[in-house]
Design goal:
- This protein is an alpha+beta fold and 236 residues long.
- The protein has two domains: 180 residues, no CATH class; 53 residues, Arc Repressor Mutant, subunit A, CATH 1.10.10.10.
- 18% of the residues lie in helices and 37% in strands.
- The strands form two sheets. Strands 1, 2, 3, 4, 5, 6, 7, 8 and 9 form a nine-stranded mixed beta sheet that branches. Strands 10-12-11 form a three-stranded antiparallel beta sheet.
- α2 links the parallel β5 and β6.
- The longest helix is centred in the C-terminal third of the chain and has 14 residues.
- The chain is globular and about 60 Å long.
Length: 236
């Protein structure tokens, strides 16, 4: 699975975003744009983030289900690269209603490449289209919270107003279905269950289930047996 380390740092400004597009999305669009590219270009009735002569680039920070039909239609006629950022290091910045910073702290949560499957579960079959490729970015980012009383009860009413890109730590590109196999731990037995994968990877069982489901739909994992209520998988 080819990748390159960018370690590119972006200037940040912990302010409240005024556009529907997040600051993170805007920064990534600028990062990928090259001279001659068109931004927010219309292609086949859809608006794409970056239109290149030989490639369409679509940046999606969450919710692959929302763009499933769009990707399927565009991939019928054009090479399309989907870019998905996963926040590996996150700073939470609390601001008041005027945008003034109240508090800044580092989140204990760390994103992993395997978190891709939380979204990939919506489009696993698309990986078999030769026009489709995926690039996952592991990033450092700031998340701006505002005390407006409209947010989740988990955040005690604080709303997430914006996200700022700080740094791209690593780029991981998936050009073929076999690249996805590299996400399975090397120490995993040839035949394994979701429980085996959970124990080795230290991932939540729900995420492990999404992972094996996607790899089966992609066509690089198959069910060969059943142990009690657990399926036994093997690489194809």
């Amino acid at each position: 699975m080819p990748f390159c380390n960018n370690n590119r740092t972006f200037s940040t400004n912990p302010k409240i975003g005024t556009l529907r597009e997040s600051s993170l999305h805007s920064a990534l669009k600028s990062f990928f744009a090259q001279p001659g590219d068109e931004l927010e270009a219309e292609v086949d009735g859809y608006i794409v983030d970056v239109k290149r002569v030989d490639l369409l680039i679509e940046i999606q920070t969450r919710n692959f289900s929302a763009i499933k039909n769009k990707l399927e239609e565009l991939c019928k006629r054009h090479p399309v690269q989907l870019v998905y950022p996963i926040t590996q290091v996150k700073w939470i910045i609390r601001v008041d209603k005027t945008g003034k910073t109240i508090k800044k702290r580092k989140s204990p949560k760390r994103g992993r490449i395997e978190h891709l499957f939380n979204e990939m579960i919506h489009i696993p079959e698309l990986t078999n289209n030769p026009n489709f490729s995926l690039k996952v970015l592991l990033i450092k980012a700031e998340e701006i919270w505002i005390d407006d009383g409209k947010g989740s009860w988990r955040r005690k009413g604080w709303s997430i107003r914006d996200q700022n890109l700080i740094e791209i730590i690593e780029e991981i590109k998936f050009d073929s279905i076999h690249d996805y196999l590299d996400l399975l731990p090397s120490s995993l037995p040839m035949e394994f269950t979701n429980k085996d994968l959970r124990q080795i990877s230290k991932l939540p069982i729900r995420l492990v289930g999404k992972m094996t489901y996607c790899l089966r739909k992609i066509g690089i994992l198959k069910i060969i047996a059943k142990r009690g209520n657990a399926y036994v998988f093997m690489r194809v």
